[in-house]
Amino acid sequence: MQERRRFVRIPENLQISYEIMPSVKSGAFITKNISQGGIRFFVHDLIPKNSLLKIKLTIKNIPFSFDAMVKLIWIREEPQSERYEIGVEFVNLPKKSAKTLIAYIKDILEVSHRA
């Protein structure tokens, strides 16, 4: 079966905070995986598909953090839990943030291939 993703995803636990736009709901979690195209993480709120969220992503070991807008592509309720797993894609990610994120992902992939 062929991989349908446009970007390689890496399993990475990074700090992420989110704000559902335009409401005032917000929260913070740890990412499950990330690519240059988007992020997979958990939230406590049932958020409608195609919603826009403002996020702040922190990469501690560089150190680097950035704000970005993302669009909710899919949402799945976690059984036996009061949370939801979501997949979001970046919307107009600033070039500096994109460049840093791509370099970070490449570094992680190189390290994992050496191991």
Structure description:
The protein has 115 residues and is α+β, with helices and mostly antiparallel strands. It has one domain (10-114): predicted glycosyltransferase like domains (Thrombin, subunit H, Beta Barrel). 17% of the residues lie in helices and 46% in strands. It contains one helix and seven strands. It has a six-stranded antiparallel barrel with strand order 2-3-4-7-6-5. A hairpin with a 5-residue loop joins β2 and β3. The longest helix has 20 residues, at 95-114. The chain is globular, with a radius of gyration of 14 Å. The two termini are 26 Å apart. The mean pLDDT is 89.
Cα-based radius of gyration, to the nearest Å: 14 Å
Chain-averaged pLDDT = 89
- Sequence of secondary-structure elements: EEEEEEEH
Helix and strand content put the structural class at alpha+beta
Instruction: Count every helix, treating DSSP H or I runs of 4 or more residues as helices.
Output: 1
**Overall structural domain count:** 1
Helical percentage: 10-25%
What is the molecular shape?
A: globular
What would CATH call the class? Mainly Beta
User: Per CATH, which architecture?
Assistant: Beta Barrel
Described by strand count, sense and barrel closure, the largest sheet is: 6 strands, antiparallel, barrel
In percent, how much strand structure appears in the residues? Answer: over 45%
Poorly predicted regions are: none
Q: What spatial order of strands do you see in the largest sheet?
A: 2-3-4-7-6-5
Q: Termini separation (Å)?
A: 26 Å
What's the number of extended β-strand segments?
7
What is the name of the CATH superfamily?
predicted glycosyltransferase like domains
> Which fold name corresponds to the CATH topology?
Thrombin, subunit H
